[in-house]
Amino acid sequence: MGRYFGTDGFRGEANVGLTAEHAYKVGKYLGWFYGQEHKAKIVIGKDTRRSSYMFEYALVAGLTASGADAYLLHVTTTPSISYVARTDGFDCGIMISASHNPYYDNGIKLISGSGEKMPEEVIAKVEDYLDGVTPEVPYATRADIGCTVDYVAGRNRYVGYLISLAVHSFRDLRIGLDCANGSSWMIARNVFEALGARVYVINNQPNGLNINENCGSTHLEGLQRHVLENHLDIGFAFDGDADRCLCVDELGQVVNGDQIMYLCARYMKSRGELDNNTVATTVMSNFGLYKAFDAAGIGYVKTKVGDKYVYEAMQANNYRIGGEQSGHIIFSKYEATGDGIVTALKIMQTMLDSKRPISELAAPCRMYPQVLENVRVSDKEAVQADPRVLEAVRKVTEALGDSGRILVRASGTEPLVRVMVEADSEEICRKYVSEVCAVIREAGYAV
Questions:
Q1: pLDDT at position 402, please?
Q2: pLDDT beyond 80 at 2
Q3: Residue of 166, 199, 167 lying closest to 184 (CA atoms)
Q4: Which of 38, 91, 96, 146 is most exposed by smallest CB count within 10 Å?
Q5: Would the pTM count as exceeding 0.85?
Q6: What mean pLDDT is reported for the chain?
Q7: Could you give the CA distance from residue 340 to residue 188 in angstroms, rounded to a whole number?
Q8: Average pLDDT of the residues in 377-383
Q9: What is the dihedral of CA 199, 180, 165, 289, to 10 degrees?
Q10: Is 237 helix (H, G, I), strand (E, B) or coil?
Q11: How far lies 46's CA from each of 49, 50, 113, 206, in Å?
Q12: pLDDT digits (tens, 9 = 90+) for 402-427
């Protein structure tokens, strides 16, 4: 990870950690970088945060000042930027969003012309420019100054693409959607209604300040009530930029990202579509997922946390599905990134082809109780290398045996060490998490 850009872009509180000047300079550099041999074309989208408009204008100013043409999709999803960049011949794409974070945060996500995360070497060049390490890039003049293009047609084509992925009509099905007052607030409803569903939408009235506020994929209680009160067949919750999706079954139970990967992978295996019979997961996936995969005869790999690492493993080994417990699921046949609406459509396909409710399809994947504690520390790397911490982790691992696991890892974006234990009961989890966190504190790392 770089100085500004983490695994999911340059993120921070608007005009505190991430400023309009940062956005202007990112735009100016990218416009120049991609425009050295031709006039650069760069597509931009944003979520519904109040600051997204500010960052959009700042990026456009930088891009056009260095000679690039900026194509605006306006309020849209992160995966739509990936799709349009890939299919319409753009040099790169930029998404303005802080995903599931509160409204006062924002972020700049850079996407390559192939619809994937921007290569690290390009991000490093952008960061050097932000730090003043590289010389100032020139301004374009006269006819070389870039222009701004309203490109809502690109977003509409993306909606058409989503509709084309469905293999069944959703006629008479009662489907709930929680749009998190974010990017999916119009797109998701349009897709499901076009497929014939009776759609019941909540949290689709963004005002710039209510994105992710007690709603969406990080707050499923509202969707659970919505499904039960309206006797719905299924419900889907998206995050702020709609690259994640979690599910609520007809009984009001949460179906998380691990369970989604399980039921979709089993379906794909039954149809001969699970290439290499393997699913890419992260080290944070639940112990119960791996037990269920073992029982189903499905292989798996574990990557570092972050969809970037999941996709790299998928691309290198031709895996067809991978993702995270948070609902960031990648179906590589259709997208180069996670797409919450695609995930919802594939769940629907699995349910309709199987002729069984989601509650039954997810049931074999029993989630083990999990307790996670974050410890703010002075040195993340030193904690993970400390012999006292390593010995405490070894003892817990030995005590748990094959009935659970412990994971100690550093946060990729904050000065935190995360201690997570999964076991047969929450009581056991809390006991071992407390023991390891106590060792970290006694060693003097906590701040």
A1: 87
A2: no
A3: 199
A4: 38
A5: yes
A6: 96
A7: 9
A8: 94
A9: -110
A10: strand
A11: 8, 10, 18, 13
A12: 889 999 998 876 789 999 999 999 99
Q: Are 259 and 279 in contact (CB under 8 A)?
A: no
Measured distance CA(114)–CA(81) in Å, rounded: 11
b/e map of 213-250 (b: 16 or more CB within 10 Å)?
Answer: eebbbbbbebbbebbeeeebbbbbbbbbbbbbbbbbbb
Q: Is the pLDDT reported for residue 65 higher than 70?
A: yes
Q: Quickly list DSSP for 270-325.
A: HTT-SGGGEEEEETTS-HHHHHHHHHHT-EEEEE-SSHHHHHHHHHHHT-SEEE-T
**Dihedral through CA 60, CA 62, CA 63, CA 65, nearest 10?**
110
Contact 402, 419 (CB under 8 A): no
How many residues are recorded in the chain?
A: 447
Torsional sign, CA 60, 63, 65, 70: negative
Q: What is the pLDDT of residues 278-304, one digit of tens each?
A: 999 999 899 999 999 999 999 999 999
SS3 37: coil
Residue 275: how many other CB atoms lie within 10 Å: 15
pLDDT, tens digit, for every residue of 204-251? Answer: 999 999 999 999 999 999 999 999 999 999 999 999 999 999 999 999
CB 340, CB 192: distance < 8 Å: no
What tokens appear for 1 in the block?
């990870």
The answer on pLDDT for 276 being more than 60 is yes
Give Cα 361 to chain centroid, integer Å. 24
What whole-number distance in Å separates Cα of residue 78 and Cα of residue 63?
A: 19
Amino acid identity for residue 161 in this structure: Y
What number of other Cβ atoms are within 10 A of residue 149's Cβ?
A: 13
Strand-pairing partners, residue 425, are none
Report, as residue numbers or ranges, the catalytic residues: 99
Residues 6+ apart with CB under 8 A from 52: 46, 75, 96, 97, 106
